[in-house]
Amino acid sequence: MADAVVGDDVLGDDPTVKQLESMVAEMCGKESGLFVPSGTMSNAVALKTHTDPGDEIITERYSHIYLYEGGGYAALCGSSIALPEGTNGLLTPDLVQNAIRKQKGSQSHYPDGSLVCVENTANRGGGTCYEQEVLDAIAEVSKAKNCSTHIDGARIFNASVATNTPLRRMTRDYDSISICLSKGLGAPVGSVLVGSEEFIGQAHRWRKMFGGGMRQSGVLAAAGMYALENNIQRMEDDHRRAQSIARAIDEMDHVSVDIDAVQTNMVYFSANGFTASEVSQKMAKAGIDMFDISPTHCRIVTHLHITDQDVERVIDALSTLS
User: Whole domain around residue 61: which residue ranges?
Assistant: First the structure.
């Protein structure tokens, strides 16, 4: 980061940012990329570029776009939202097909469903991954209904590593993909939105309007490139450690986990006799930080700072939870 060659990215002349954008676009098989400060902004810019006010966005009931992005689809896009509920955060082609509404033929009762969003991995699904055939079929259904397609790929490299699917193949049939550099990849800041050259050209305007234009941001882009060059395949270690925690929980009587849903670096679990908030507070006293993601469930996430010794500490703390 200290050695990054920088310019002014608002003017489009920061060479390190341009290199990062091209790098991610190439990895996804897309024409162009746009570096933004956060995953939420990346999704917001994508949604705004794909939709017009009064359109409807289709996304899973527990998706990040719906639950955790401040209602941006409404405030920034002026869009309605349709929320089919999948299994472990994952949509199916039939759910998407049935959720897409069109104004034409409805006597103007319906909005125009114009964008289908999938999340891979699915955060609230517990880090679950789409099967490639399902992703392909969802894209096919969406295109047949004249809808654009977007992947919230905040953790898409986790999905790629876990399913042994090349990123370019995973994203082939989707119009845009948002990729976070600061989650499993471990960079301090930033996301990259990729798509066609025309799409990114339009997205650039919304990035500026949403306050995402940065100046000498090559210092941040350099960290993103380092992460992409060094921290992808090592996600296998995160997945292995999450599995170790899940298997240990599965053997305990006082805590429970859906072990089939532990596919990448997340473990969702509940504890008998305690609320999730109480569990997270007790674990914090043992020096272990986790989210209470709902009244009943906590979330453990493994990442590049978590060691095998940390895993043992987590298992020990959970085994003595009282």
Answer: 9-230
